[in-house]
Design goal:
This protein is mainly alpha-helical. It has 26 helices and two strands. The chain is 73% helix and 3% strand.
């Protein structure tokens, strides 16, 4: 089945083409079957390849793509344990999100367009992880950026949503410039963009002096795509799109691309020691920074968005301290519980007639029993409570940080503790206590249809048991990603101390959230004047957007205004319009020579003949 790897991205692309071309002529039922079926078929092929791989690496070549001068690039796919794992995540979680979308988007007039975009999104992400070289990866990289723009601004009649889509697109272009420069530098040094070739050559001493520079450039690209400081501000605003889009971006596709790219480029980062320090530091600072913001957010999707930024920070911490398997492990478990939480939030929003403010909710567990239970399981998983999936993957990252950098370990613990607090704050304010919405909303409350609740139940099961593939001492995922590895000896006393510390802090955070929001029944302040100064600063996300607006957007607008007024209008427009006016004047003047009088024409011919004779005699 490995030779059929080219079919995996092709199937969603075919689904996109059929739905996109068919449009509203296709029934919603047929669109659902094509959209979901194409991704399910891709998942089936991915599963077959996963089972057949046996730790080996295969290159599947389709055709010669670029052959000019010294640049020779094949259009080929690399099928190895890392890409096989990501194939399962993208197609598996993507399929569940597609099924969920059938119910969630059923009444939307853009139903066909939505599924076309979803399929295209999955196609580009599959292309990204399957590419055997940086150029194919970059095509997929830019493709998911395009699809995020289309899906975040899906409801394009809303100006704010359009602005959020543009913000995501532009900020990602900043990161993508770094990634592109990194690829160019790789080609200049290695005269190749193939992972296999670069992996073989990167260990040579002559290239090691450049690995940090390459690593930094690649990391800039990862910061944009995976929303790390300073390029993280687009991700919370990406909540403007429909909730299934949020789940797809945060759990299975776009934001995990940066993690995958660095893990795939491990042959470079293995020697980029300074870059690894930068990655670990940026990751843990982002994790802590985003966690503080999540504590004071009241939009159910914004809380989850900042939790994603924070969790991605922990993944980068893992990559920076050398716990690459732990980072990929956390990508896997995070896909389970974050997709569950976003889809659960969508179920809540669906029941609340579009309401997203958790201050207007409360007591929903009576009305949404399946959503409540699955959301609770996802909240426990992300909080790092054993034996749920998030516990094992987060513990592996923290253990790696403890070995390499104690300060990073402490900051990671604090971020994890904050995660447990704000996630249970979200849970308690949404599902516990009394209902705080309107009477109309209360009357409308009902559980979501099966097309939405069945994916929730599947993801809930994965969130509970998914961590068992990475139990210390018998790490199945480590054996799969690193075939032939005998693993490492586990000091159980040391491991138990680290696990116990993280678990105890998480339980303390949960108890604090319960005390504040259940026992004392405290509600977030409705008005800013009722907040302390520090709360107000954090509530406004430390005014980072306003800071960027002041130092980047407004100066650029001013420069644009000046150049428009003094360069474009008088010089460029003046030159272009002057040429046009001159031609017009010349034409209107010369046309007067065509008078229609024969006598004038004879006179002109005589003058011309005399002039010709005169110049001939002179020469």
């Amino acid at each position: 089945m490995i030779q059929l790897a080219w079919l995996i991205p092709l199937l969603p692309l075919i689904g996109f083409a059929i739905i996109g071309l068919g449009g509203k002529k296709l029934s919603k039922g047929l669109i659902s079957i094509i959209g979901c079926g194409s991704v399910l078929a891709a998942f089936g092929l991915s599963l077959g390849i996963f089972l057949e791989l046996h730790g080996q690496s295969h290159t599947v070549k389709m055709f010669d793509w670029i052959n000019t001068g010294s640049l020779k690039v094949d259009f080929s796919f690399l099928v190895d344990p890392l890409s096989a794992l990501f194939l399962l995540i993208i197609t598996g979680i993507g399929f569940l999100i597609h099924v969920y979308s059938v119910g969630y988007m059923h009444d939307d007039e853009g139903f066909h367009r939505f599924f076309a975009y979803l399929n295209l999104f999955v196609f580009f992400m599959l292309l990204l992880v399957l590419g055997s070289n940086y150029l194919i990866m970059f095509v997929g990289w830019e493709g998911v950026g395009l699809c995020s723009y289309l899906l975040i601004g899906f409801w394009f009649k809303n100006t704010d949503y359009n602005n959020a889509a543009k913000k995501a697109f532009i900020i990602n272009r900043v990161g993508d410039l770094g990634f592109l420069l990194g690829i160019l530098l790789i080609y200049v040094l290695f005269e190749s963009v193939s992972f296999a070739t670069i992996g073989t050559m990167s260990g040579n001493a002559e290239y090691r002096q450049y690995t940090d520079l390459i690593g930094i450039l690649l990391f800039i690209g990862a910061c944009g795509k995976s929303a790390q400081i300073p390029l993280y501000t687009w991700l919370p605003d990406a909540m403007a799109g429909p909730t299934p889009v949020s789940a797809l971006i945060h759990a299975a596709t776009m934001v995990t691309a940066g993690i995958y790219m660095i893990a795939r480029s491990s042959f470079i980062f293995e020697y980029a020691h300074l870059t690894n320090e930068v990655i670990a530091t940026v990751g843990v600072v982002t994790a802590l920074f985003a966690a503080t913001i999540g504590i004071f957010q009241n939009d159910i999707k914004k809380v989850l968005a900042y939790s994603t930024v924070s969790q991605l920070g922990l993944m980068f911490l893992g990559l920076g301290v050398g716990a690459t398997t732990g980072a990929v492990f956390h990508v896997t478990t995070h896909a389970f519980f974050k997709a569950l939480l976003f889809l659960g939030a969508g179920s809540v929003i669906h029941a609340m007639s579009g309401e997203q403010d958790i201050r207007r909710m409360g007591g929903l567990r009576k009305h949404l029993p399946i959503t409540h239970l699955t959301f609770l399981l996802g909240t426990i998983a992300i909080s790092g409570i054993p034996p749920f999936s998030g516990f094992f993957s987060k513990d592996e990252i923290l253990a790696g940080a403890f070995e390499e950098h104690k300060l990073h370990w402490v900051l990671g613990l604090v971020a994890s503790m904050m995660t447990a607090f704000y996630m249970f704050r979200l849970y308690f304010l949404t599902f516990s206590g009394k209902f705080r919405g309107t009477e109309e909303q209360h009357h409308h409350l009902h559980e979501s249809p099966k097309s939405m609740t069945i994916p929730l139940m599947v993801l809930a099961i994965l969130s509970v048991v998914g961590g068992f593939i990475g139990i210390p001492g018998s790490h199945l995922l480590d054996h799969f990603l690193n075939p032939g590895s005998t693993g490492h000896h586990v000091d159980w006393a040391h491991e138990a101390l680290l696990m116990g510390t993280a678990t105890l802090l998480a339980l303390i955070a949960i108890y604090m959230a319960w005390t504040v929001y259940v026992k004392r029944n405290t509600l977030p302040a409705e008005k800013e004047e009722n907040m302390s100064r520090m709360q107000r600063i954090i509530y406004h996300k430390y005014y980072v957007d306003e800071f960027y607006d002041a130092i980047i957007r407004k100066p650029l607008d001013m420069i644009s205004s000046i150049t428009y007024r003094f360069i474009e209008l008088p010089v460029i427009d003046g030159l272009v319009n002057g040429v046009g006016s001159s031609v017009k004047w010349l034409g209107s003047t010369v046309r007067l020579l065509q008078s229609g009088y024969v006598g004038f024409y004879i006179f002109a011919m005589t003058l011309a003949a005399i002039a010709m004779i005169y110049f001939t005699l002179i020469n």
